[in-house]
């Protein structure tokens, strides 16, 4: 894409009320637009990142047999009364229309997905099933000060699995641990993300959170580097340590962001909706469930928090809006033609290129913008390099540039 055509521009300042690093950088670089506290729109660069993250997650969900659906954001009040959450969930948005009919604005989808399954599945032959969606969620977050780490409207992947036996559930749950590790590896934060034992709520002993170490995190975890796991401070006590075989003196305390979690739901939601199956002998049993969430917007914010430097964002190759930032410092018409030509040839090779073809912008400004936007690789073409039929290549994470001939580059 030609940068001269990109309708967004970089900004020197973020909105004065924005305190988080992720939102400041993403707004200044033109990835997102702030609508109000905790609510952001995705602009062309931001949407490209979001789509890449989506596709990585989608492939991983499809690989474990997940079936993608898209559930409604408006959810019937009756369903929420059935699970008792209409009154118990503090962050639920309740919306009413002019006839005073109330609905919930979906913060999560157990109340929708279970009745859907009940419509179609009732025999042991119909299970196991896993469905997922990537969709906007709404939560009345009180502390919406962390940019896209904690939105009032945000984007989540939520998967729900349905099983006829504890063993089948456990097998799937174990698989999901590996799937999650693979996702965080692929988006570039694998090395700083720990599977973390957290309290499992009413029903199971532990749930598993995936926590990324960064100072911006609201959570505190204790990491065992050797075992490559952590414990959330909220569950930290001698009994837990003993049951996990961890030694207090080996643990490192750290701030972290919860980028995803997986939960054993047992029959918490299948029971109120009577989601059950008949076995081979014709006997009826309640379905066992698991749920598996990842906040996509939070994940993007986490990447920014964890990897950015004082010049701006640093995107991992896998989720960068473009792979290459082609920065042209040429002003002469004949030179511009040559750079245009290189841009076209890179595109023909299937490379994703943001081409800074802007005229009348100083080199220093172009480099500062390029650092702020954060593409992993920069190609700089000036009249000087062009005279030698070459370009300067610089990685966003390195300070030294390399000169390479255009021929070699295109090979
Ligand atoms: P938290 O403790 O941070 O509020 P949660 O326990 O409410 O998270 P879940 O309901 O399990 O989170 O949601 C699944 C995932 O969705 C979380 O792991 C997180 O990545 C993401 N998420 C939750 N709330 C938000 C939010 N307000 N903004 C962005 N992402 C969120
Ligand atoms: Mg929450």
Please describe what this structure looks like:
The protein is an alpha+beta fold. It folds into two domains: 3-307, Bira Bifunctional Protein, Domain 2 (BirA Bifunctional Protein, domain 2, 2-Layer Sandwich); 324-410, Rossmann fold, CATH 3.40.50.800. Helix content is 31%, strand content 29%. The protein has twelve helices and 21 strands. The strands form five sheets. A five-stranded mixed β-barrel has the order 9-10-13-11-12. Strand 5 and strand 6 form a beta hairpin. Helix 2 (44-63) runs antiparallel to helix 6 (166-186). The protein binds adenosine-5'-triphosphate and magnesium ion. Residues 108, 139, 141, 150-151, 154, 156, 258-261, 293-295, 297-298 line the site of adenosine-5'-triphosphate (ATP). Adenosine-5'-triphosphate binds next to strand 8, strand 13, strand 16 and helix 8.
CATH topology of the largest domain: BirA Bifunctional Protein, domain 2
Number of strands: 21
CATH class of the largest domain: Alpha Beta
Provide the CATH architecture of the largest domain: 2-Layer Sandwich
Instruction: Give the fraction of residues assigned to helices.
Output: 25-40%
Bound compounds, each kind once, are: adenosine-5'-triphosphate, magnesium ion
Structural class: alpha+beta
What distance separates the N and C termini?
A: 21 Å
Shape: elongated
The proportion of strand residues reads 25-35%
Total number of helical segments? 12
Parts with pLDDT < 50 across at least 5 consecutive residues? none
Strand order of the largest sheet: 9-10-13-11-12
Q: Evaluate the radius of gyration.
A: 25 Å
What is the CATH superfamily label of the largest domain?
Bira Bifunctional Protein, Domain 2
Instruction: Tell me the number of structural domains.
Output: 2
Largest sheet: 5 strands, mixed, barrel
- The overall pLDDT, averaged over residues, is 96
